[in-house]
Specification:
The protein is of the alpha/beta class and 189 residues long. It has a single domain, classed as Spore Coat Polysaccharide Biosynthesis Protein SpsA, Chain A (Alpha-Beta Complex), CATH 3.90.550.10. The chain is built from 6 helices and 9 strands.
């Protein structure tokens, strides 16, 4: 099973308001990535969990066939949202995978997500989105990395786990704009 976890519970500190509800290209910022992941979750071996504290995002997740779980301590850092998502995965078998994506990267393409899903097979340890020398989200983790993900402190994200095993890390090449995240109102342009 492949568990896609969409992290949409951030504090938007640099933005000054809940950036995920801000309009980007005609719809809320969060909707872009959520729709992309939902389109890729149509396979029977893939499920989608959205980690959010925002009712509108939770409703959209359910409408698209995913489930929504809260992250009451998300203001303390990304690791809390990661743990909230992991807690929502009811069963995690040895051959399962976790694909984490973030809600402030609206240009993520379904083609890129499908390349991650294709890597979720025996022998794969982890994978990261990459464009040249730059790496970013999403990140794919085999089930064996779950304890390391659960142990992340504070505002540490999955990159800290991926960096533990660079020799086993696969790269999923993507377009540069897919790695671009929205942090300030000016980034919406």
């Amino acid at each position: 099973m492949i568990h896609m976890l969409y992290l949409a519970a951030g504090a938007s500190r640099r933005f000054g308001a809940d950036k995920l509800l801000s309009l980007y290209r005609g719809k809320p910022l969060f909707a872009h990535g959520l729709e992309t992941l939902a389109a890729c979750a149509e396979r029977p071996d893939v499920d989608l969990t959205v980690v959010t504290n925002t009712p509108a995002i939770a409703a959209a997740a359910r409408h698209l066939g995913g489930r929504a779980v809260p992250s009451p301590q998300s203001a303390l850092g990304q690791s809390y949202s990661i743990r909230a998502g992991l807690a929502a995965v009811e069963t995690l078998a040895d051959g399962d995978f976790l694909l984490f994506a973030v809600a402030d990267q609206p240009r993520l393409r379904a083609e890129t997500v499908r390349r991650f899903l294709a890597l979720a097979r025996p022998g794969t340890w982890a994978a990261t989105a990459a464009c040249g020398d730059r790496v970013g989200n999403p990140g794919l983790f085999c089930a064996a990395l779950t304890p390391a993900l659960r142990a992340l402190p504070g505002d540490r994200g999955g990159r800290a786990v991926l960096n533990l095993y660079p020799e086993r890390l696969l790269r999923v090449e993507c377009l540069p704009e897919e790695l671009r995240d929205i942090d300030t109102p000016a980034d919406l342009d």
